[in-house]
Each structure stands twice: as C-alpha cells, then as structure tokens.
Write a structure and sequence with these properties.
Blueprint: H1 25-39, H2 51-63, H3 69-79, E1 80-87, E2 92-94, H4 96-107, E3 112-123, E4 126-136, E5 146-156, E6 162-168, H5 171-174, H6 182-201, H7 208-211
Parallel strand pairs: 1-6
Antiparallel strand pairs: 1-2, 3-4, 4-5, 5-6
C-alpha cells in the first residue's frame, strides 16, 4: 500500500454501500493478537535488498496501484496467502477469499483508489510501509481527491504472500470527516477536544500578547 499506501492500505470498507459493519475495538485487538501468534510459525524474514523482498514489495505495490474490482479479483490470490488476515482499523477479515470480496466491493464504490508506498522498514519477520493513499469517490469531498497517510504492517510466508495486513491510520481525518452528517459531527468533536486542550494549557502557555492582557 496505505497504504493501505495501504494503505493499506489503504482499506476503505466504511465507504457508503460497502456493507461491512465495523468490528468493535476489543474484538479487533483480540483478532490481531491471535493472528500474530497464529502466523508466527509461518512467517519468514525478507532480507532487505534481497530478490525475495523486491519481488514481494513489487507485488504488493502493484496490487494497490490503481485498484479496481477487476484487478483485485485477478491478483488477490497471488498477493494474499489462503490463511491471511486483514485488519484495517475498522474490520478484521480472515482468508484470502474474504479479503478479495471486501477489496473488490470497496474498489467498486470509488472512481480512484491508489496507494503509493513512500518508505519501508523491516523488524524481524514484520515489514512496515508508510504510504500515501488517494481516493476519489462521488459524494465525498465534492468528488475531489482525498489524500491520507498511514502505515501498514505486513508479514509474509515463504512464497512471499501476505499473512498479516494491519493498518495504522486515522480513519476519522482520512475519510469519515468527508461523509455527510457524520463528518460534521467528527469535526465538531475534534474542535471541542482541541479547544479543551488549549483551555487546560492556561495562561502560562499563551503567547506574550495574550499573557500580558
């Protein structure tokens, strides 16, 4: 990918019409911890700069570049292992077939869905990518591009397929704020929280002109 880029990726199951309800946070966290333990014996280290890492990265980047329902159906089984796990901060999905259905439906709801990986790093068997995601969808941001950033953790099997795809990004500022009604609520809550933080800071943290008044 945000990501997805992928951004995860990327990772837009909450767009109108996607039909997959968000998973409660405790269940999301529990499923993630279980997936980490379950995939540990299957995960391999992709040595930085190796052919294996290059091939795996290129496969992931290609998957999240200009995603469409057709490209998702064509590539998912090559990119995700049969026992793979996806957690995009909103839903947890297991199995490459279910992931394919989720992404294909999501891609079908937008005009543009593109994730570009900007940086990557590895820690043991885990591979992290910082991404930039661009989304264009009717009814969001007046049809103008929405740009968000995030980080995704990947874990790969011996065939270079994804075992774990865990996104870390702010869905609220990313896309929720663009939704009718809900976006306004989120912006008001965010503004109230920021105002409360400024009030708690008190005069000592105010600028010179404010402190002197």
């Amino acid at each position: 990918m945000n990501t997805r880029g992928y951004l995860l990726l990327a990772c837009l199951g909450f767009l109108p019409g996607c039909g997959t309800p968000p998973t409660p946070l405790p269940a999301l966290n529990a499923s993630y911890e279980q997936a980490l333990a379950r995939t540990a014996p299957l995960a391999v280290i992709l040595t930085p700069g190796s052919d294996e890492e290059r091939l795996a990265f290129n496969r992931v980047q290609r998957y999240f570049t200009g995603m469409t329902a057709a490209s998702v159906r064509e590539q998912t089984s090559l990119v995700y292992a049969p026992e793979s796990y996806l957690n995009d901060t909103l839903v947890a999905i297991e199995g490459s077939g279910n992931i394919e259905a989720y992404f294909a439906h999501t891609a079908g709801q937008v005009r543009t869905l593109n994730v570009e990986f900007l940086e990557r790093a590895t820690v043991g068997t885990d591979w992290y990518g910082r991404w930039q995601m661009t989304v264009v969808a009717d009814g969001l941001n007046s049809g103008q591009p929405i740009l968000t950033y995030g980080v995704t953790q990947f874990r790969f099997d011996a065939q270079g397929r994804i075992l774990i795809h865990k996104d870390f990004w702010d869905a609220g500022s990313g896309l929720y704020e663009q939704l009718p009604i809900l976006g306004g609520v989120i912006r008001r809550v965010r503004g109230a929280v920021e105002a409360a933080g400024r009030n708690e800071a008190g005069p000592s943290e105010a600028g010179p002109s404010e402190a002197g008044q």
